[in-house]
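Form 12-C: Joint structure prediction
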Amino acid sequence: MVNYLEKLLCIEILEKITRMQRFLRLEPDVSRRQGFEVVNIFLKALDAILVNLRPIITRLSEKVPLDKWEKLATIRRLSDTFKSIDNLHSQLQFVYGIWVRPEAHVFVKSVIEFIPSVRRPEKVNIILSNMYSFLETDLSSYVEDVLSVTDIYVDFQNQSPSVFLPKIERDNPLNWSILVHECGHADFQGNSHLLDQLEAIFAQADAPSKKILQRWAEEIYCDLFATQILGPAYLASFATFALVVAGGGGSEISSETHPADIVRIAIIHEALEKSNLKVVLAEPRLDSNDISSLFYNALEERVKLERQFIRPPLEQPQPQFILQDFVDVICEQVEQTISLSQQLTVKDFDRIYGLAKRLAKGILIGSYQNPQLMESGKENFSEGRIDPQKLNEAKTAVQESRVLLWEIVNAGWLHKIENIYPRAFTLFFDSDDTPLEERVRIWGEELEGIDRLLLKSIESSEIQRLMEEV
Amino acid sequence: MVLSDWEIIQALMKEEIIVTPLMNAKKQIGSSSIDVRLGTEFKLIRTVKQTHFNLLVPIEQIKGQVREYTEIVHVEPMQPFILHPGEFALGSTLEYIVLPNNIAGRLEGRSTWGRVGLQVHSTAGLVDPGFHGTLTFELHNMGKLPLPLYPGVRVAQISFHRCLPVSEIYIDKSGAKYARSTGTKDTMFYEDYEYKQIQKFPSKK
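Section 2 - Result
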């Protein structure tokens, strides 16, 4: 497919627009007050943003590859469009909105179960944020900072780990994958063995470098923590986030708190390659035949394109160590925290393809039949009837086993890449004269449908887990 | 002809019928039905904001009235939804159900819950051949004590009735209002053609 990267980026930005439209319509007063001005102003602003995308969609609808200048211009314009969405998102403080979905609590609860009990927080709060960013903080110290007071933390003592979820991602479990990284922060600080090891490695560094390296180590730990729990789905979520958020060479820029996105994605990709954790695509896209390589290549292609025109700023932090010095130590610790053999195995990955097919048919995937058991169960029937003695065996054959969180999210991403993106590409780039606003509405409904399936699947999987425990 | 236990199992094996999640087949598959569980999303009737449904206004306003009529209550797993005596609420099955074009379903309560006054549907228990989606419960506590209803509890059962293949399956019908639902849906009576006809008579407004 020509111009895949640009189309992908455009679709992701259109997704943000439809998600903000959906969030705004959750405003309780909208149904009662037809002319509710605050919401209408936001909706109008989104229409204005959409106008910016119209020429890009028209150009991408042509089957002619973009030349390198057009590519740069397109990517830049898409980045600017996302910045507008980001700015508008920060104004969502004016919309009353609604609380976090209960399924998000189920999601985060399932994630913190992976943390060893000695350092597992009792709960992690989820806060819908006006900023389009995912963060982890201890809420009591955060509030102390905001208010410049000192007597809140005392009462809570690290007991209020909280993750921030952007409002427009409220209903999007595929992007909740980034919350798994944030939960990793709650684990990192309690991992005294790792902290000691890192202290020894960084002993030679000067104080400013040491501070940067410790923060980078924490970020990489959290990336690998999320990778170990979710596999390629984490890379997919993080890479699409990086794709839309980073503009002007941003993916190559490190900060004092975070290594460059492209470096982080490379480390995640390498970890997945080493473990042979692949969700294979039916046909290659961007020269990749699996999910993690697809998104790694997408981000790298974007970085390469921008590198031709933009030089990263010289004032980037330059710590004295190279990342590889401590990545291996972190990898080892993460593997000890979450046993790979118990969670993600290549064998289990086989189920993801069947689950994605089920999603494509619009069916829930919180549980799944075992095909081997089903086949053997058929042997209990002779001449269309069953021996009453074997009725229970036959019932066991049709019983469904619980689908785990990481399977649901990976199947969701696979379905999105194999079915939802292609439908969006057709809708926006091969479409007839349907007005753009109408196409955005159809795209929004499509996304809402898959969100609901995934949300309900996460919840029914959790109910099954709790029922089985009983 | 109602399907017996082994016929239901065969239909599940052939994926003629899909009932998912089927968490505990031994407990759920009865002699001629499958027990279904309560989901997590409820819609509680809210009467404080409206005196009546005004059906002679534009459809967007009717939709607004319907939204106002119910309040969504989403309970987390292992948390109860309390249905007080005399109260009515909508709920839905945890299970997503797919029927072929030659099997109809019939939703019924379970006697266990009927004995304490729980009614799971007031009037609409028939599931058309070709249906896809979760089923809506019209929950009513006819008893004298509040009922704590937990998601995942088996409150109803669905039986299956084989018929000749229908000529138009439910999900392909233009008026299939509740197809592919994954949660509790409000009424969509305003989509019925009768209301469109009634609205054409301005003298009644």
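Section 3 - Comments
Strands of chain A lie at 125-129, 135-138, 161-166, 280-285, 288-290, 367-369, 381-382, 385-386, 400-402. The interface with chain B takes residues 31-32, 34, 101-102, 105-106, 362-364, 366-369, 374, 377-378, 381, 384-386, 391-392, 394-400, 402, 449, 452-453, 456, 459-464, 466-468 of chain A (CB under 8 Å).
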